[in-house]
Hints:
Blueprint: E1 2-7, H1 11-25, E2 30-35, E3 47-50, E4 53-56, E5 62-63, H2 68-75, E6 82-84, E7 92-96, E8 99-102, E9 107-108, E10 111-112, H3 115-120, H4 126-135, H5 149-157, H6 159-174, H7 183-186, H8 188-196, H9 200-215, E11 222-225, H10 230-239, E12 245-246, E13 253-257, E14 260-265, E15 268-272, E16 274-277, H11 281-287, H12 293-300, E17 303-314, H13 316-321, E18 327-329, E19 340-343, H14 344-347, E20 357-364, H15 365-371, H16 376-391, E21 399-411, H17 416-428, E22 433-435, H18 445-459
Parallel strand pairs: 1-2, 1-16, 2-12, 7-18, 16-22
Antiparallel strand pairs: 3-4, 5-11, 6-11, 7-8, 9-10, 13-14, 14-15, 17-20, 17-21, 18-19, 19-20
Amino acid sequence: MTRIAIIGGGISGLSAAFELEQQRRGGVELEYVLYESSSSLGGVLRTEHMDGCTVEAGPDSFVSEKPWAADLCRELGLGDQLIGSNDADRKTYILTHGRLIEMPDGLMFMVPTKILPTGFSPLFSWKTKLRMMRELYHPPRAADQDESVAVFVERHYGPEMVDRLADPLLSGVYGGEAANLSVRAVLPRFADMERTHGSLGRAMLAARKKMKAMRKSAPPLFTSLKSGMQYLAETVVTYLTPEWLLKNAPVEVIEPQEGGWAVSVRAESNHFDKVIVALPAPAAAQILRNVSPELAHELSAVQYSSSITVGLAFDREVRQSLPPGFGFLVPRSEGKQLLAATFVHNKFPHRAPEDRALLRCFFAGVNAETVWPLSDEQIVGIVRNDLQQILGLRAEPLFARVYKWKSAMAQYGVRHLERLGRIEHLRRQLPGLALAGNAYRGIGVPDCVRSGRDAAREASKSG
């Protein structure tokens, strides 16, 4: 009988437990114990239901292109719970000189694929538009080393594109800055395009015919669950063996033992054949510090940023006054604290009654750290002030909820992939140890699900 410890009860750890439970039910002789330091399972997947609204404290959805979260939902019998974003009304605005400017049609992330909409858009200066035209003649370039997204984008399109698009878009995903994020880790497809085509615009145009043919059958851009993202974690828990799920059980240290590992919680030690560490990298480094100082050093070097989300509901009048679309992004150069706001009632109509406007506002990185010490009331006040300046929104919210996530978003810095190579090399020197979580090859929910299940498959192998 193989005994496996899972350390961390977020979606990565729960996905690992689900994979092991499936194998156990399929006849594999194994047991697992999941240790979670807090009183709840599911990590940042947290949902509240108020006034008929579904309010997400953490991630509100996942990218449909990555199948692992949706696959898990279907395996759990949640296929009828899956809902897609309302892409027919998908518009995103960028705050530019105090005005909301719609992102032009044909702009794929930051690469223009349609000349006229981009050419007539007030989002960019003529200097940047000329850069876009010249970019079509950018020669292929095989970079010999990693670089930041900001350097990469500026080389192709200039600094204005970094400020108005690349940085705001990545802030919403990673909670970090384009100047600090690795292009190879964060935008590997773009790095490949530069290597093969030179011009990102030419590469996108070459792929456009294929994408157009696939578009009719393409899924919506984002997927979520009718009952909220927390329901995914809750459903996984119901599938698992309850007595093997230990909450309020912080693991202090793990140590190699003959034939396995010792896992210590409050001075009590238990023996396991394998261990899956599904924690944020700094926490993983802490419990591995005595096992491998070198591995702990590499893990602790993975940086994290904090984030704050604020959910606000308003009445029908506000809903009718808001612009159509999914919401807006705020470049740092605009001098606001707020980085983004989602019009949830447009993005996912199921999330709010027809007479409610539901907004989800976002702080991250330096902006989040700046307002972190403030009370919830003060943070809501900052949000309302920014919304008034941006949208002219003066109405009192029907409710407001503030959710703080300390050091929750992994930052894939320059040379992140090289660091992963060193982490993997050092991990392989410790038989029976697997790592999972958002520190490695993707921070979204699908990536975490894949990471946890892959770690479980490795841990369950004999030997």
